[in-house]
């Protein structure tokens, strides 16, 4: 496991675990400011910004899987190959903090959100009680109701992961009877602005 993850808060009497997962080509430090905001809002939470395990094939930062020459056909296999390491990472921090899955929130941006959403569809137990996915997507629309509450936050002008993926995921999860919400942000591209950060904090606070 890559050991460059950043523990942003570790209260003596921890009751929750919040794990943040960055996008491809980024690092744990990129989501540290958001994690600091969450730690201030949730003084009972262990907050960790997780560094992805692999050096990015884009030439900088880290990744869970390569996006070089990725296609709709190849994406599911790449995510599936990365998923055991992702689930092991979540389990590691749950053991480290003593916090169970039901009290764990996964906050992902872009590739981090893709991995968090994929984890909710795994045949084994869902690793978290709540997932907040910013600018993420499913490789294939979900076919099982996730045990986790799922919050989708997406910029309407996202040219990297188009907002239609969020709309389609929301509709599919609703049809499965999932506990799901969707927040679309006009004018926002592929990123996290102040509005998105406030929405993430609000959704995490509901957990």
Automatic annotation (TrEMBL):
The keyword Lipid biosynthesis does not apply. Residues 7-196 form the Phospholipase/carboxylesterase/thioesterase domain. Belongs to the AB hydrolase superfamily. AB hydrolase 2 family. It comes from the Bacteria. Pfam families: Abhydrolase_2. PANTHER family: LYSOPHOSPHOLIPASE-LIKE PROTEIN 1, LYSOPHOSPHOLIPASE-RELATED. The lineage of its organism: Bacteria, Pseudomonadati, Pseudomonadota, Betaproteobacteria, Burkholderiales. Keywords: Hydrolase. It comes from Ramlibacter aquaticus. This is Esterase. The keyword Hydrolase applies.
């Amino acid at each position: 496991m890559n050991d460059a993850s950043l523990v942003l808060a570790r209260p003596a009497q921890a009751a929750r675990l919040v794990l943040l997962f960055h996008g491809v080509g980024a690092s744990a430090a990129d989501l540290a400011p958001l994690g600091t905001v969450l730690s201030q809002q949730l003084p009972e939470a262990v907050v960790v910004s997780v560094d992805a395990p692999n050096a990015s094939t884009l030439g900088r930062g880290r990744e869970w899987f390569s996006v070089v020459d990725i296609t709709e056909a190849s994406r599911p296999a790449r995510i599936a190959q990365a998923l055991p390491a992702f689930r092991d990472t979540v389990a590691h921090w749950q053991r480290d903090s003593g916090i169970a899955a039901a009290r764990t929130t996964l906050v992902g941006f872009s590739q981090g959100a893709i991995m968090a959403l994929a984890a909710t569809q795994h045949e084994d137990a869902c690793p978290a009680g709540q997932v907040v996915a910013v600018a993420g997507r499913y490789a294939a629309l979900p076919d099982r109701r996730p045990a986790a509450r799922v919050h989708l936050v997406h910029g309407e002008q996202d040219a990297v992961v188009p907002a239609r993926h969020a709309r389609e995921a929301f509709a599919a999860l609703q049809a499965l009877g999932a506990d799901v919400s969707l927040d679309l942000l006009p004018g926002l591209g592929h990123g996290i602005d102040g509005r998105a950060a406030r929405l993430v904090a609000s959704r995490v606070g509901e957990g």
